[in-house]
């Protein structure tokens, strides 16, 4: 069987694209790769892209010069986790505090990893996770 190397894209559907971009750029330090009327693509590190779609803008799909992108959309708060270095957890907690971001929860995992959870402007659950969270990380 051919192997999958990693998840390339993760999509979040947002009400206010500018507010979402500001959050992921200014608080988490993600870089904008491309920006258009219905989506913003952000560099989420190590060949991973975070796609921020304007909610409702993708329900009919999109034609591109290279082919058609099938329709998709999402509702309600979902979850995304970003990998961080174990020694950076305290720095991240201070950064969130400096930006007025409330840490909703902290978890210590059986494999030794730690996570902090907080919300983005659309109420999505965002996690910063250290190694030892999963057997593969």
Shape type = globular
> What structural category do the secondary elements indicate?
alpha+beta
Separation of the first and last Cα atoms = 23 Å
Number of strands: 10
Strand order of the largest sheet: 1-4-3-2
Count of helix runs: 2
Walkthrough of the structure:
This protein is of the alpha+beta class. The chain has helices at 17-27, 89-98, and strands spanning 9-14, 31-35, 39-43, 49-54, 62-64, 67-69, 79-83, 105-108, 114-119, 125-129. The protein has one domain (9-57, 78-129): Roll (2,3-Dihydroxybiphenyl 1,2-Dioxygenase, domain 1). The chain is 15% helix and 35% strand. The protein has a 4-stranded mixed sheet, covered by helices on one side. Strands 7-10-9-8 form a 4-stranded mixed sheet, with helices on one face. A two-stranded antiparallel sheet has the order 5-6. The longest helix is centred in the first third of the chain and has 11 residues, at 17-27.
